[in-house]
Design goal:
This protein is of the alpha+beta class. Helices cover about 30% and strands about 45% of the residues. The protein has helices spanning about 1-15, 40-50, and strands at about 25, 30-40, 55-70, 75-85. The chain is elongated, with a radius of gyration of 16 Å.
Length: about 90
């Protein structure tokens, strides 16, 4: 049974740290906007700088969630961030 919990925890932790591609859409000001997801906030900002190609940007919204997975008899919480940004032209 412990093996199953360990395996489940490893799989969920892998899902929480899997890099995702930014989702592109048109922002509220008519410019190109992106939803950037990551498990560590500094990684979000690194992706953000790459996506806007060094241009200035506006952070429209920030969402913080917690991914929960069992760890033995305890529960571990991993933060998961989504930054909604709009690149300035």
């Amino acid at each position: 049974m412990k093996f199953i919990y360990c395996l489940l925890g490893i799989l969920l932790m892998g899902c929480a740290t899997t890099p995702t591609q930014p989702t592109q859409f048109i922002g509220p000001h008519g410019n190109t906007a992106y939803a950037i997801e990551c498990s560590q906030l500094p990684n979000c900002y690194a992706k953000l700088n790459n996506v806007c190609e060094g241009k200035t940007y506006t952070i429209i919204d920030t969402v913080t969630e917690s991914v929960i997975f069992p760890r033995g008899y305890e529960t571990a919480y991993i933060p998961y961030y989504t930054l909604i940004i709009e690149c300035d032209d």
